[in-house]
Specification:
The chain is mainly beta. Helices cover about 0% and strands about 55% of the residues.
Length: about 100
């Protein structure tokens, strides 16, 4: 799958992008071989439970052979407490990706 030349933004006061697992400002979970190029996000991304995992400003979980090129995020990324795992500004979890 190829994703390119895209922008995702939310305005102040609007709803956050939220979920329990694999939550991203652009994509929650990429399948192997996904390419993301020239994309940006500016959003609030939130893991909504204490057991939330893989929360990222651009991608929640980047599976094997996912490629992210020339892409940025200005997202605010939050896990709900100290138990949330794999919370990252750009990618929550990357499995053999570039």
């Amino acid at each position: 799958m190829k994703i390119s030349n895209c922008t995702v933004s939310t305005s102040v006061g609007s709803s956050a992008i939220s979920g329990k697992k694999n939550v991203g400002g652009l994509v929650g979970h990429t399948n192997g071989g996904t390419s993301i190029t020239d994309c940006s996000t500016s959003a609030v991304v939130v893991g909504i439970e204490s057991t939330s995992s893989n929360i990222g400003g651009l991608v929640g979980f980047a599976d094997s052979n996912t490629s992210i090129v020339n892409s940025i995020t200005n997202a605010e990324v939050y896990g709900t407490d100290n138990i949330a795992s794999n919370v990252g500004g750009l990618v929550g979890t990357a499995k053999a990706s570039t």
